[in-house]
Amino acid sequence: MADRNEKVLLELLKLPGNNVCADCGSRNPEWASYNLGIFLCPRCAGVHRGMGVHISKVKHLKLDRWEDSQVERMKEVGNINAKLKYEERVPPCYRRPKENDPQVLIEQWIRAKYQREEFCYPERQGYVSGYMVGFLMKRGKEDSRYHPRKFILSEAEDTLKYFVRENKEPKAILRLSELNVVFAPEKIDYPTSLQLTFLKDGTTRHIYLYHEDPEVITNWYMAIRCAKLHRLQVAYPSASEEDLVGYLTEDFAKEGWLWKTGPRTTDGFKKRWFTLDNRKLMYHDEPLDAHPKGEIFIGHALDGYSVRIGVVAGVKDQGFSFTLHTPDRIFNLSAATESDRDQWLQVLEKVIDRPLTPQDSSISVRLVRKRANTNSMSIFSPR
């Protein structure tokens, strides 16, 4: 009997939709929730176990014993039917996680689907209204301590404000249209943390935040995305929803330590933390600096941008060196390993080969102008 049930389950895995995890899309799921009727990867199965058996009852497809009734339930539902129910009303601004996304994002996606059933009952989606207020722990600009700060998100005003004291003027007012937000658990060392990145006076500013409650920090992330999308839909009514979603938030393509020289061939290599944010390649003294020491806009290959292995004549090769060529300067860079160098080359080449969007051009203009003109310009302003 057990062998027969196992064979049936393995046959069900071959059906469309069942051959990937119902929650993150990773291939070859090995687990299942037999009351929900879905196939899961090991990581998502762990989240399902954490919700409790009153919500999801998890078994391994091969290692656990299956009852006939449980196999029948898997036949009745399956991943595609479950998605039709539990993902019926996912807002377009909600980021659907993939297999390599941060744990907090995957966990809250699963809990939103099955525990809170937010996508069955839209009234439970507290992040789509365009307004949110609450306290988050913010890292000090000049020190490493985190302090509680009140934040107010307003889609109507296109702002995210934070306050040192509740009854005083805001310490800073950030434009939503100029704001990127990423999950940053590896860098900030809190599993429930965010990094805000935005342009101010022609240069980039980083703000680091966390909240103890993973649902709260995820709701802030989604609220920013939703507010940005709604404003874009008003500004660009003829644009497709799919295209606009691409402008909401974007993970950093790559981060890590590199060594770079100064502008002269005689300058030695210095260790810097690099962050590639879309087309901005920023370098810092430390990963949690509030401002980068420098920013390099990465344009298109036809405009004179390229990357090559090795260094220019007169510069000592560090072993895993490469050069970034821009119209204004050649940057000599070096990685710690050949693998890391190749990864940097790959992500930079991908950016250089990609055509510029109007938003990219606007950022380029602001960075170029930053020493001579600090007038603010929305990244999403029509040009």
UniProtKB/TrEMBL annotation:
Domain PH, by residue range, is 129-229, 251-353
Annotated ranges, domain Arf-GAP: 6-127
Q: Which GO terms describe its molecular function?
A: GTPase activator activity; phosphatidylinositol bisphosphate binding; phosphatidylinositol-3,4,5-trisphosphate binding; zinc ion binding
Q: Which cellular component, as a GO term, is one annotated location?
A: cytoplasm
What are the record keywords, sorted?
Cytoplasm, GTPase activation, Metal-binding, Repeat, Zinc, Zinc-finger
Asked if rRNA-binding is a keyword of the record, the answer is: no
Compartmental location:
Cytoplasm
Question: Where's it mainly located?
Answer: cytoplasm
Matching entries from InterPro entries are given as: Arf-GAP_dual-PH_domain, ARFGAP/RecO, ArfGAP_dom, ArfGAP_dom_sf, PH-like_dom_sf, PH1_ADAP, PH2_ADAP, PH_domain
- PANTHER family under this entry? ARF-GAP WITH DUAL PH DOMAIN-CONTAINING PROTEIN 1, ARF-GAP WITH DUAL PH DOMAIN-CONTAINING PROTEIN 1-LIKE PROTEIN
**What's the protein name?**
Arf-GAP with dual PH domain-containing protein 1-like
Q: Which organism is it from?
A: Ignelater luminosus (Cucubano)
Organism lineage reads as: Eukaryota, Metazoa, Ecdysozoa, Arthropoda, Hexapoda
